[in-house]
Amino acid sequence: EQLYTNLHQIEDSFMRSFLYGRPVFALELTIPHIGEELAFYLAVPRRLSAAVEKIVQGIFPEAHIEQAPEYNIFNPQGGATGAYVTLRGPRYYPVRTYQKLEGDPMRELTNVFTKLAPEGEGAALQIVARPAQRKWQRKLKANAKLLFEGKRPKHGFEKAVAMVGKTVMSESKSAKEAEQKKMTQQKRLTPLEEEVVKMLEAKASKALFETNIRVVASAATKDRADAILQGLTLAFGQFNDPNVNSFTTHAATGKSFRDFAFSFSFRAFDERRNVVLGSEELTSIFHFPNVSTEPP
Asked: Of the N and C termini of the chain, which has fewer Cβ atoms inside 10 Å?
């Protein structure tokens, strides 16, 4: 988790940030279509490679860092498939992390890779991330406050409707009536509601990242590629919390798969698939193999 906290603090020049946006890095877990070695990659802009290398060596003194050539997971004579992993609820609400799971949650993902054939089958998990805007931290804190006060936060269309209603509401109500309404809205929180408030507050205290999560698979046939992809997407189910938030997938098919493959290859950030994750959530999904996430 310290790695993500330090990566969050990397700053680019003002002019570069203004022209190109906040610096993006990519985390990748992959096996190419020829070979059976599971590889972990951290891809960063060349101009920031020296700073990131110092961060990694500071946390993992025994790590050997070298520039790696590009890999290829795609079977040129076979089929391929891919999907975005997003959140079913609000894009910034928390999911379960290693703190509430037995064992290392990343094992379910790596187990899928170990079942690939040495030749003709490849797969990858890619997380493209950048430091999140501060508005997401404010949203988490604001929603935690509303829940603590016994109110239900509004999202999306529901929030827009509420704002319109607020503007047309008569202003003739007395302060006493408004106070009475506030008192009736307040109620004692249930243990479950208290837990949700704690989860929101805990996530707000972490380093936050805007992310794109992609999973992609290739094999001799499209059916086999679909089966590999399904294994990867099912592994995200362990992070689901039905009372707060859960992961869902959006398959890329037809022309959308060509766009998906392009974005995957060039590690591009897609604003439409933005998922806000905290450092603890990122650590649960992706960490280097010598990092323990066993529950204390």
From this structure: C
The length of the chain is 296
Please check whether residue 30 is in contact with residue 41, taking contact to mean a CB–CB distance below 8 angstroms.
yes
Give the end-to-end CA distance of the chain in Å, rounded to a whole number.
Answer: 14
Number of other CB atoms surrounding residue 14 within 10 Å = 8
> What is the token pair recorded at 165?
């209603």
pLDDT at position 190 is: 87
pLDDT at 183 (0 to 100): 53
> Is a pLDDT exceeding 80 seen at residue 258?
yes
Secondary structure letter of residue 193 according to DSSP: H
Q: How far apart are CA 122 and CA 94, in angstroms?
A: 30
Task: Specify the range with the lowest mean pLDDT, choosing from 2-16, 78-92, 100-114, 243-257.
Answer: 2-16
Q: How far is CA 224 from CA 118, 129, 221, in A?
A: 14, 29, 5
- Pairing of the two strands 39-43 and 79-87: unpaired
The closest alpha carbon to 96, from 263, 210, 246, 227, belongs to 246
Among 41, 58, 53, 46, which residue's Cα sits nearest to residue 12? Answer: 46
Q: Distance between CA atoms of 249 and 76, rounded to whole angstroms?
A: 25
Rounded to 10 deg, the angle between the 222-234 and 106-114 helix axes is: 160
Measured distance CA(262)–CA(258) in Å, rounded: 6
Stretch among 53-67, 100-114, 275-289 having the lowest mean pLDDT: 53-67
**So what's the pLDDT on residue 188?**
78
Taking the model in full, what pTM does it have? 0.85
Query: Is the separation of the CB atoms in 229 and 215 below 8 Å?
Result: yes
